[in-house]
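@channel sequence for tomorrow's demo:
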Amino acid sequence: MIEEEELRSYLASSGAFLEGHFLLSSGLHSPNYVQCALALKAPAWAGRMGSALAEGWSGPKPDLVLSPAMGGLIIGHEAARAFGVDFLFTERENNAMTLRRGFVLPRGARLVIVEDVFTTGKSTLETAAVAAAAGAVTLGAMSVINRMGERTLPFPALSLLRLGLTTYQPEKCPLCAAGVPLVKPGSRKFG
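structure tokens (generated this afternoon):
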């Protein structure tokens, strides 16, 4: 297992905690962002985080791990390795989450969705919808970081670290008022 303070320290030293003016996928603005890709670039740490997620899971053992691309690729693979199960991922195609690359979810398969960061829950829910459409069962979801605040998912969820980062509605953003350039991090494209 990874202690919370050790994980916080590693995230900071890896450069994953960013400060500036960020446009989040929710449309909100924030002076903080967590770029988990910077933390997951170290294979030893990615493996430790994947193992910690699998160790912390209290539900039934999944038949496979399913992750949304891009953010869930590395941590999902590492969690699947720790569980000793296969790993598949979804991708956005024409702005809709889907399975590609010949991936097939077996009907009745019990799976856990693994992501790097829960922010709004949108990618997790879209991935769960893909699983349900294929006749698979989502047991729950896991992430390295949970930024969802008071929002919850409709199934059991586990995160290694909960972060309450500051967010602003665009029209009330003091960073916009101060003229700080807005940056769109992450992998989701939106209008």
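heads up for whoever presents: The beta strands are 17-23, 29-34, 64-68, 86-93, 96-99, 110-118, 137-146, 157-162.
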